[in-house]
Amino acid sequence: MIEVVDLWKSFGDNHVLKGINCTVEKGTTFVVLGGSGSGKTVLMKHVIGLLHPDRGQVKVNGVDMSAVTGPELTQARQMFGMVFQGAALFDSMTVFENVAFPLVEKRRHMNADEVRARVVEKLRVVDLGEEVLPRWPAELSGGMRKRVALARALVTDPQVVLYDEPTTGLDPITTDSVDGMIDAAKERLGVTSMVISHDIASAFKVADRLAVLYDGHIAAQGTPEEVRGSDDPFVRKFLSYWFKKQ
Amino acid sequence: MRRFRAAFEDFGELIFFAGEVLAWTFRPPFRLGMVVGQMAAIGVGSVMIVGVTGTFTGMVLALQTYYAMRQLGAEGLVGGSVAIALARELAPVLTALMIVGRSGSAITTELGTMRVTEQIDAMETMAVNPVQYLVVPRVLASFVMFPLLTMLFNVLGYAGGYAMGVGVSGIPPGPFIEHTRTFVEHKDIYSGLVKAFFFGGVVSTITCYRGYRASGGARGVGESTTSAVVMCSIAILVVDYLITLVTVGS
Predict the structure, then answer these.
(1) What is the DSSP-derived secondary structure letter of residue B44?
(2) How far is it, in rounded angstroms, from Cα A238 to Cα A198?
């Protein structure tokens, strides 16, 4: 469970977050929608403890991510898996080495066979076979890179998975496949997911609940139906670009 | 004034970064395999360029010294002059400058690319400290390899000087070697190796810092690399002066 309480963050004179409040229930997918520069990524970086707030709290499964530092923060981060916008695969490592990396580094008691079995298992979750194991990230398509990144995020069986713009720059078929992958991680592994996106179609497809971020605050949040029915002028304008097309 | 302040802040951040590297060096897990890998990348990969530079530096030095000494009828002193110049100054400084050009720039580019493509952020989210994983092995490897490559420079430089002095200029081998033994003391070689040791720490810390703090995509990585090479070159000369001041003074 993720609880964000009255979160404020500024960079110099740039006030990015102005009192964010939201809750993500265990085992659900929460999508944060918003335009470029609305503070979505800053919010996510607070959740995983990459940034510390000026004011407010972020609690993940009872751990105050805004207060922990050093070894406690390192320990707390083991609850998470994160999929970056550009996949962020280590380009000097093969697919196998990428997915195995968190196990090799943090689960040192596992032997080589166990690591390989776990890597293959997680690649199956994202519909990839063993044939990709020796390949380099540069040899993979955008969609495959995102899948490998998700397999890497899932390999330690995290309780929470964060997705930063998972469908940006992908074609419609790959976008659909990534959406399916997010659903599969939730259904098969029961993870709590937080997705940062400006892809309205994708957001409404995968979200159990969603929030629309505008000018540092949440303009609307609730189930997809509730947000779609919001009276907030920005939310209506933001969503109309997509729903008018439908 | 603003540029001066920015440079001062940057230097302060570099010092904090060096402190962070020092702290993580002594915390487990210790990745000896990665240190050995970096020793190969930084050290073994630089053997050719350091060897060639050393050989030709020794040859040129012997040739120049020979023409000067011949005026005084003291050609036999060429061996000692070459050896002492190499051991005290030229070997550590030129070796460090060569490694900066070959391996230092590669370190900044590699870490910078990892930074701007979020690979370092990804590592952090996996509860792996990037300073410990990426920077510490490079710094430790540099501490070891800079003195070793400096010794290689010394040996090949002296060999180049011998080939030029004895083989080409016709200096008798006896006085060439005898004057080397007379002039060069162990402390001359040690002082050069001590310089190399510090150069290794300074160069690896600066190049890692520049890469680690890179931003702004491919252009930013390029700017960081240029800045790292310039900063290292100046730092090598400043540190060289300071160590010479201390060692000669003592």
Answers:
(1) G
(2) 10
Residue B57: predicted pLDDT: 97
SS3 A38: coil
Nearest-neighbour CA in chain B from A16: distance (Å): 20
| Alpha-carbon span A138 to A46, nearest angstrom | 30
Amino acid letter, residue B90: L
Q: Which H, E and C letters describe A70-119, residue by residue?
A: HHHHHHHHHHEEEECCCCCCCCCCCHHHHHHHHHHHHCCCCCHHHHHHHH
- Evaluate if residue A149 carries a pLDDT over 70: yes
In the structure encoding, which two tokens stand for residue A182, read together?
């997010």
Q: How far apart are CA B206 and CA B33, in angstroms?
A: 23
User: Per the CB < 8 Å rule, is B122 touching A88?
Assistant: yes
| Upper half-sphere CA count for residue B56 (Cβ side, 13 Å) | 7
Rounded Cα distance, B49 and B57, in Å: 12
**Whether the complex's predicted ipTM surpasses the cut of 0.95:** no
Q: What percent of chain B has pLDDT over 70?
A: 99
Residue in A74, A89, A90 closest to B127 by CB: A74
* A8 in contact with chain B, both atoms CB, cutoff 8 A: no
Of A98, A177, A80, the residue nearest A137 (C-alpha): A98
Plot region of A80 (φ>0 → left; ψ -120 to 50 → alpha; else → beta): beta
Enumerate residues 6+ apart whose C-beta is below 8 A from A111: none
Domain boundaries, chain B: 31-249
The answer, yes or no, to whether the previous bond of B29 is cis (omega within 30 of 0) is: yes
Closest CA to B100 of B21, B207, B11, B243: B207
3-state secondary structure of B128: coil
Interface residue B41 vs chain A (CB under 8 A): no
- The overall average pLDDT reported for chain A is 90
CATH of domain A2-88+159-243: 3.40.50.300
Task: Measure B77 CA to nearest chain A CA, in Å.
Answer: 51
Task: Read off the tokens for B21.
Answer: 């590297």
Examine the pLDDT at A125 and tell me if it is beyond 90: no
> Rounded distance, CA B213 to CA A175, Å?
32
Which residues 84-113 of chain B have a CB within 8 Å of chain A? 110, 113
Chain B residues lying within 8 Å of A162, measured CB to CB: 125
Q: Where are the domains of chain A?
A: 2-88+159-243
Residue A65, min C-alpha distance to chain B (Å): 13
Place of tokens 């006896």: B174
pLDDT digits (tens, 9 = 90+) for A220-236: 999 999 999 989 998 88
Report the amino acid identity of residue A89.
L
SS3 A65: coil
